[in-house]
Amino acid sequence: MAADFGNLRYQSGFGNEFASADPRVPDALPEGQNSPQKCPHGLYAEQLSGTAFTAPRHTNQRSWLYRIRPSVIHTPFTPLNNQDVFAIDTTPTPNQTRWNPFPLPSKHERKDFADNIYTVAKGGSVGARSGLEIHVYSCNASMENRAVYNSDGDYLIVPQQGVLEVKTEFGLMRVEPLEICVIPQGIRFSVNVSGESRGYILEVYGTHFQIPDLGPIGANGLANPRDFQTPVAWFEDVDVENFEILNKYQGHWFKSVQDHSPFDVVGWHGNYCPYKYDLRKFMVINTVSFDHCDPSIFTVLTAPSLKPGTAIADFVIFPPRWGVATNTFRPPYFHRNCMSEYMGLIAGCYEAKETGFRPGGGSLHSIMTPHGPDALCFEKASNEELKPQRVAEGTMSFMFESSLHLFITNRAKNENIDVDYWKDWQPIKKHFKLPK
Ligand SMILES: O=C(O)Cc1cc(O)ccc1O
Ligand SMILES: [Fe+2]
Description:
CATH superfamily of the largest domain: Jelly Rolls
Helix content: under 10%
Shape: globular
Number of domains: 2
Number of strands: 28
CATH architecture of the largest domain: Sandwich
CATH class of the largest domain: Mainly Beta
Order of helices and strands: EEEEEEEEEEEEEEEEEEEEEEEEEHEEEH
Number of helices: 2
Bound molecules: 2-(3,6-dihydroxyphenyl)acetic acid, fe (ii) ion
Radius of gyration: 23 Å
Strand content: 35-45%
CATH topology of the largest domain: Jelly Rolls
Largest sheet: 9 strands, antiparallel
């Protein structure tokens, strides 16, 4: 059956124990056990583990898939020829870095999602299972008879332009700009697009995304669990000569082929699965008195490290909201941070930058590198009348914030760079006058 992305249903909740069978085979899931001697309808049982078997119960993640063939039927993997893209720069730079919008493929070339994942920066260690990578993708064609899976980490995908129709082993998701999706480590997926598409990817290794604890905020607010949506089971029984399976493994890409679609999971149950989230559903919490809350108040998802409160990566958004703070410099403050801050822009413009930071572009403020509002923004916000005001209307920017040092790839260090970025702060005036 051809995938129909027109009218999809989802299961609601974050981290739930879901169970789903394709409606064509409602009794696909074995009852009361995972591995019966014979599974219903001649299906194969296969477990996909997202955490160590022995991880504490509240973090333990795994799913059981009931599929037409087990995933193991494929030819040996061979390396793909694009390893240079992933080579990291050996000379770090502490400079503020800004990228112009990453180019879309030209009309004369056919690029699918997997062809054009461009790594901008990475940190930590893929071998030590603790780290992250930041990529941008741009494509104009659908993946045909190819699927990707990542052995290194989880992908959080942020479309900036173009709808993504995502086929996964767990079912189908339609993800449009202002929505995001997460494809955890190991899950096979492919992406259809209809036109020029671009976006950002945050990859985290050795951890998984959680919704942050709310502390004194209480039981409700920020990203509410019910707004996360997981696919329902969907399968295709397709035999083809060459179905390519692309695998990112220890920072390198490999390819194998098999003679059938991997999207042959008829039913599944478990708590390790892909999901999507609509950023417009984020309940923004912020000051109603004075001063500027740290941007952690806008955390949608956090991928924790082993150090309490310190993330391998946080996914933070800056949504439209009211600004009401009294006697306050309202935009982001000047600061130096013990974390790395990569920012991207989905739509509109960012409150701390009047110009230069454009949708589809990015910026990186590294550990302890000073940054903050540009000169124009500072003067305006220091002098404007402080009425209740809509902030960031019609815009959406985001930050991938990491406790790790990030290294910019050779390619991203040379391509697409806004060489004048540092100049944004140079007109900042000295206002100080010694009291007489
Ligand atoms: O640097 C940035 O623009 C991100 C940011 C936003 C904010 O409101 C406070 C601190 C911060 O790092
Ligand atoms: Fe910052």
